[in-house]
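Pilot study result, target chain (349 residues):
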Amino acid sequence: MRTFKIERPDGTLRPAIQAKIDNLNKPKGSLGRLEDLAMQICLIQQTLEPSMQHPCHLLLGGDHGIEREGVSVSPREVTWQQMINFTRGGGGVNMFCRQHGFKLRIVDVGVDYDLSQIDGIIDRKIARGTKNFLYEPAMTEEEFNQAIQVGVELVDDCIAEGCKVLSIGEMGIGNTSPSSIWMSLFGDIPLKDCIGAGAGLNNDGIRHKYKVLSQAVARYQSLLSHLTSHILPLRIFGGFEMIAAIGAMLRAAECHLVVLVDGFIMTACALAAILLYPDSQDYMIFTHCGDESGHRMMLDIVDAQPLLSLGLRLGEGTGALCAFPIIDSAVRMINEMNNFDNAKITKYF
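Predicted structure:
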């Protein structure tokens, strides 16, 4: 895996940022989380006048070998069908990107279908889905590194256009399964507590999912018990779209972009990124606590307080897009509100 140079944002500006926030014509601290967000974004961008310039959304698609074991209520072909639907503007992600002015990039990282001739889909396919990790690792080391690099290059393309805020979503039937395993392994949480309904499994389906995933984890127990790196479980269980998301998050942090983290799957990717590079968390805003079982516990692992809790479990990065107006309000607050001196209002604290 390539090396990233990620450091915590320089805190030298913190007193000046705080002074600007406190001098806005409002009671001190009265805009709550918006003030915290403004501070974080100013530190990321190292400015007293932050910008949400050219927001970009990466929609990463990939299929999972473990889907063959019946761990999802949705069939595999839904991945490619939805990818094509996104090119026609018909998905939830399309609507929210249009609403909030995000440039949408639809990327095939590992869909089990030939999408190379479909206009509107960026072809970065590594393979037609990962291998079934019930029997063998999902990907090779070479494929893992390739997926990381895909994420890096996608972020570089966004930066070249002037992007300062990045959100990431996913499309991949079965990807709650690796997310649940990562949560269990990285958070030291019983696997049973990490498994939910995904796209809509009933109780019998959840029990079957737990049985399959337990068997898969047991297969690699001897390897996992002597871990010296977090990369191995990522490679054994992950999806190409998920590893690409990790690469994108790390590259975005390296380049001081604001990173909007969506629901269960993207939180699992963010958790992995943070374990690899702890300082990357300073560039992340956790936007939404979804309806997938265990998501709140996974957020607790990294002590994250999400902005929204709307019961969403669509994926695609829709929770991050829904939260964007709140983040934009924080930036507008520090840039556009008057201060006590200019407004000729008595500062009473």
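One observation from the pilot: The two ends are 52 Å apart (CA to CA). A full batch analysis is planned for the follow-on phase.
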